[in-house]
Amino acid sequence: MDITHAARDLRVCDAEREPVIERLQEAYAEGRLDHGEFDLRVHLAMTARTRGDLAAVTRDLGPVPSAQAHAGPVAGTDRMLGAAAHAVAVPTLFIGPLVLMLTRGKRSEYVRRQAAEAVNFQVTLLLVTIVTFGIGGVLYAVAWILSVIAAVFALAGDSFRYPWILRLID
Length: 170
What we know:
The chain starts with a helix and ends in a 15-residue tail after the last helix. By secondary structure, the protein is mostly helical. The model has no long low-confidence stretch (mean pLDDT 86). It contains ten helices and no strands.
């Protein structure tokens, strides 16, 4: 019995479907898929039963290009600015990271990614606070902790992705 054939026949769970759907969203944003094909492939991913079925959904899209792999090590100034994008969000909400993204993000993709992540996080928190009529403001205590963690990651030259946020800017 062929081992690769047996692995393709294993049933998939939701945790295995999520990265495939994220890849489809990225391909749609890149313009590789039109809206109809995107909807069809998301449906196929959601109803896939085996790993083989799931792999067929993204087979022709290729791997996700990694900006960090091609960029090499992150410069010290970029790491400081990436950390500043997360730290300045605490007192200024999304305004500080947005200014950093628009000014320094043109020179450094790393700074732009970190600032965009901070903007997305702060906009999500602001929307939750507005929708819950201020009750969501309690989340800002958690936001400060996550901003410090993200700043530490940025200082180390690593990328940090906030969980459960709207990614309006990519």
